[in-house]
């Protein structure tokens, strides 16, 4: 008769373990993970729905790509621009590596939801393994075959390129492609596994998967752009952001992993009424009128955002500083004669700028604020979307971007001797920044807070409830503070800012 | 070995199990009976640390299910209501997988797998995909999985529900042979004969509540009253039977008589003496069989009122 084993928790506080003990403990902890991994791989290797596309993508795709590449080279060579064609190859490599990964999405979405539909999950849940072991076993198992297929695809494509076009990837390019492929794969899979644990059925999980596919497709485009321009350092930042997001997703998945929910019958019924009431309650709180709402729902939340707001402000200023420093350095090292006439010559530049500002002051009035507002809202929506998908992280990057550009402009104006940084700040940033900067800071902070709420485990409430409630609380800030401030900023930007800027320039 | 105290489970306000207090000792088999939806499976799932009790507590081998779920899981063997086998694996692969999850040493696991597969007549099919198995074969395989790690607490949710008579009998033999000094077994079943032949004690759940608990005999006494005896006569008699005081006639026919003695069996000599003394030609005295089924149905009738007779076809 078996005696229960002393169960080792992965992070037990036994800090004074000898390395050997630690190693054996770690191995013991990972053992069930590998057992599950092994079974899953066996199962997958027998599933034609998985094997066929993997083989297809690996064997067939590189040749298709090669055909495309040759066409491209042929086309561009006629214009004597080999360089450009060669720059497409890394992008094609990325694509070749990406397609097999899309299969991992299918497997991952099945991982828990499928077992649950087939009722095979219960014996697993009864086995003496920890949540994390089961979760990791599944997660890893989903990755192995598609990643392997990815690498095979990339390799065979490189082979084809070397053989037919005599092109060899630079080590850096290859490293970037491989690392990007892996991180994207891990990110997609962990998000899909999370959805699989939360979805009531495979069908529901598949619907949720759009939430993964769309942003990843966008990301792929951005990555290929940076690959094309060989901006490797940007790529490494992307990798970092992806890894961070992955870690957060895995954490959420573990925090909300719930054996009990996995045994519930599948019922794909969403009660929209209940969801809406939950959301409404989170937005409105106890308030009965606007004043109460501001006093009881919005203001306390704004105060709770004090600390995150400070950090966001610091980040925005840092972005501005980085923009300034980067442009200043570039300008110092560049040969001025390489710049186009229109922006090299301070006088021409000033004239253009003034003409543009005049036009804004005179012509724009009336339609302009609304247009500005809508434009800003679009940017915020993008930031929100990316933020929601990355627990706030990427959303912050989006609002940092304009500040970086602003910093660059500051350096440029200084370079042209038009304004000092202080003058630039007072004349070009402050007038509408008075409203817009607090709005952006609050927006960023509330996004961060939203992300933080999502990754904080809650045993009482389901992931869906937590998401809706925290979205509701986010909405308080957005409707109560960000939106009015942005409206105000749009008016300031339309009517006040051009005048102030003009005054600073013509003074 | 298995103990519950006020164990309750609610699903969004619906109490599937209410206030269940039970104990199953090592060496004992407890049959858990009850109509569909009574809460048997829910109880098993709480005992195997998969469902969290809403109230109350449960222990397996001294480990509390919410506090030490890992230990509990390593102590229980569960035959789940739905076997949930992986159809793309062979039986051998399947059992090996679970043996590894339970961290059995390789030799022991090979030996046990062989033992149980042979016992259930599956050994020759061990290399076949489970997808090709019949329902009963699957159930036997699932049972093998539950037994693989020699669990101290065995929870069997309807182990013979899909089996042919012969296999069902084998499984019953297996369960009987699993009764050991150190093991406690809970057997959920709708098969009352099975419950009666295997179980030491029987618990009946109804709408999540424990409505009866005891040995089969105790339950029968409780539901059907003390035993009754049939007296069979050689020739018809229509005069009132000459019974000692305290005896009740339950049913009289020309050549037979059903009597309920006040103290059960022990009163039979007195009964016989009186009848023979009065010259009644007794050829046989036998107990009127009280099946567990009768007792169960009587109990349910008492709880829910008489079930309506089936609607007649027009
Ligand atoms: N996950 C769940 N969510 C909601 N209700 C549930 C859930 N699981 C069980 N129930 C309900 O709890 C009650 C008890 O179910 P349970 O499966 O324990 O019954 P049972 O005694 O095993 O029945 P059967 O004899 O049909 O197997 C039923 O009314 C069932 O509908
Ligand atoms: Mg049941």
* Gyration radius from CA atoms of chain B, angstroms: 24 Å
Helix content of chain B: 25-40%
The spatial strand order of the largest sheet of chain B comes to 6-7-8-3-9-10
Spans of chain A with pLDDT under 50 lasting ≥5 residues? none
**For the residues shown, what is the average pLDDT of chain B?**
89
List how many beta strands of chain B DSSP finds: 14
Number of helices of chain B: 10
Q: Work out the largest interface and the residue count of each chain.
A: A-B, 32 and 40 residues
Rg of chain A (C-alpha, Å):
27 Å
Number of strands of chain A: 0
What's the main sheet of chain B like? Answer: 6 strands, mixed
Query: Quaternary status of these chains?
Result: heterodimer
Précis, in short:
The complex is a heterodimer of chains A (507) and B (314). Chain A is mainly alpha-helical and 507 residues long.
Describe the structure.
The complex is a heterodimer of chains A (507) and B (314). Helix content of chain A is 82%, strand content 0%. With 507 residues, chain A is mostly helical. Chain A folds into two domains: 26-264, no CATH class; 272-506, no CATH class. The longest helix of chain A has 44 residues, at 463-506. The termini of chain A are far apart. In chain A, 37% of the residues are buried. The mean pLDDT of chain A is 80. By secondary structure, chain B is α/β, with parallel strands linked by helices. Helices cover 34% and strands 26% of the residues of chain B. Chain B has a six-stranded mixed β-sheet with strand order 6-7-8-3-9-10, with helices on both faces. In chain B, strand 7, helix 6 (165-178) and strand 8 (184-188) form a beta-alpha-beta unit. Chain B starts with a strand and ends in a 10-residue tail after the last helix. In chain B, 39% of the residues are buried. The model of chain B has no long low-confidence stretch (mean pLDDT 89). Classes of the chains: A mainly alpha (507), B alpha/beta (314). Magnesium ion binds at residues 40-41, 81, 157 of chain B.
């Amino acid at each position: 008769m078996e005696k229960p084993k002393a169960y080792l928790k992965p992070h037990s506080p036994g800090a004074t373990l000898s390395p050997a003990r630690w190693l054996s403990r770690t191995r013991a902890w990972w053992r069930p993970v590998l057992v599950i991994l092994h079974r899953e791989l066996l199962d997958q290797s027998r599933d034609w729905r998985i094997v066929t596309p993997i083989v297809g993508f690996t064997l067939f795709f590189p040749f298709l790509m090669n055909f495309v590449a040759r066409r491209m080279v042929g086309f561009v060579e006629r214009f004597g621009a080999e360089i450009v064609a060669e720059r497409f190859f890394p992008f094609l490599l990325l694509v070749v590596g990406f397609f097999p990964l899309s299969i991992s999405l299918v497997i991952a979405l099945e991982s828990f939801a499928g077992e649950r539909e087939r009722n095979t999950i219960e014996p697993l849940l009864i086995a003496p393994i920890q949540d994390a072991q089961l979760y990791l076993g599944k997660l890893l198992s989903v990755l192995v075959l598609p990643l392997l297929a990815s690498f095979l695809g990339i390799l065979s494509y490189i082979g084809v390129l070397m053989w037919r076009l005599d092109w060899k990837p630079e080590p850096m390019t290859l490293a970037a492609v491989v690392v990007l492929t892996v991180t994207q794969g891990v990110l997609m899979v962990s998000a899909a596994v999370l959805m699989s644990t939360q979805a009531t059925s495979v069908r529901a999980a598949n619907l949720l998967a759009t939430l993964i596919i769309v942003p990843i497709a966008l990301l792929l485009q951005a990555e290929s752009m940076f690959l094309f321009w060989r901006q490797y350092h940007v790529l490494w930042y992307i990798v970092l952001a992806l890894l961070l997001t992955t870690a957060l997703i895995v954490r959420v998945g573990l925090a909300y992993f719930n054996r009990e929910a996995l045994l519930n019958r599948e019922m794909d019924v969403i009660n929209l009424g209940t969801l809406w009431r939950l959301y409404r309650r989170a937005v409105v709180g106890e308030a009965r009128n606007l004043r109460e709402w501001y006093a009881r729902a919005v203001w306390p939340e704004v105060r709770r955002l004090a600390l995150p707001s400070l950090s966001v402000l610091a980040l925005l200023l840092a972005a501005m500083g980085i923009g300034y420093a980067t442009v200043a350095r570039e300008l110092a090292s560049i040969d001025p004669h390489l710049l186009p006439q229109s922006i090299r010559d301070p006088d021409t530049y000033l004239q253009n700028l003034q003409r543009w500002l005049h036009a804004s002051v005179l012509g724009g009035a009336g339609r302009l604020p609304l247009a500005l507002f809508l434009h800003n809202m679009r940017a915020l929506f993008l930031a929100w979307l990316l933020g929601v998908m990355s627990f706030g992280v990427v959303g912050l990057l989006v609002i940092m971007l304009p500040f970086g550009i602003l910093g660059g402009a500051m350096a440029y104006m200084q370079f042209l001797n038009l304004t000092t940084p202080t003058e630039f700040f007072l004349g070009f940033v402050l007038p509408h920044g008075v409203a817009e900067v607090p709005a952006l800071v609050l927006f960023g902070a509330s996004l961060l807070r939203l992300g933080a709420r999502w990754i904080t485990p809650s045993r009482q409430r389901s992931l869906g409830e937590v998401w809706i409630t925290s979205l509701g609380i986010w909405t308080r800030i957005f409707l109560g503070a960000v939106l009015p401030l942005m409206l105000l900023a749009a008016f300031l930007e339309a009517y006040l800012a051009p005048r102030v800027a003009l005054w600073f320039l013509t003074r | 070995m298995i103990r519950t105290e006020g164990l309750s489970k609610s699903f969004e306000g619906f109490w599937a199990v209410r206030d269940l207090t039970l104990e199953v000792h090592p060496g004992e088999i407890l049959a858990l009976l009850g109509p569909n939806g009574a809460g048997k499976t829910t109880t098993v799932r709480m005992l195997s640390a998969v469902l969290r009790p809403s109230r109350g507590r449960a222990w397996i081998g001294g480990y509390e299910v919410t506090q030490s779920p890992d230990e509990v899981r390593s102590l229980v063997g569960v035959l789940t209501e739905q076997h949930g086998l992986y159809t793309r694996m062979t039986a051998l692969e399947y059992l090996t997988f679970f043996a590894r999850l339970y961290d059995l040493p390789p030799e022991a696991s090979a030996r046990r797998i062989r033992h149980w597969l042979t016992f259930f007549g599956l050994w020759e099919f061990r290399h076949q995909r489970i997808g090709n198995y019949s329902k009963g074969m699957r159930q036997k395989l699932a049972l093998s999985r539950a037994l693989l790690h020699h669990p101290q607490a065995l929870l069997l949710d309807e182990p013979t529900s899909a089996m042919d008579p012969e296999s069902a009998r084998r499984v019953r033999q297996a369960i009987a042979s699993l009764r050991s000094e150190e093991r406690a077994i809970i057997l959920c079943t709708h098969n009352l004969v099975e419950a009666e032949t295997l179980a030491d004690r029987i618990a009946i759940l109804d709408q999540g509540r424990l409505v009866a608990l005891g040995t089969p005999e105790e339950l029968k006494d409780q539901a059907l009253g003390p035993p009754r005896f049939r007296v069979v006569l050689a020739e018809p008699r229509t005069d009132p039977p000459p019974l000692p005081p305290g005896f009740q006639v339950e049913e009289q026919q020309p050549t037979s008589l059903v009597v309920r003695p006040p103290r059960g069996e022990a009163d039979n000599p007195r009964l016989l003496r009186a009848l023979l003394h009065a010259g009644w030609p007794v050829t046989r005295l036998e107990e009127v069989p009280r099946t567990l089924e009768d007792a169960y149905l009587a109990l349910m009738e008492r709880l829910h009122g008489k079930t309506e007779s089936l609607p007649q076809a027009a």
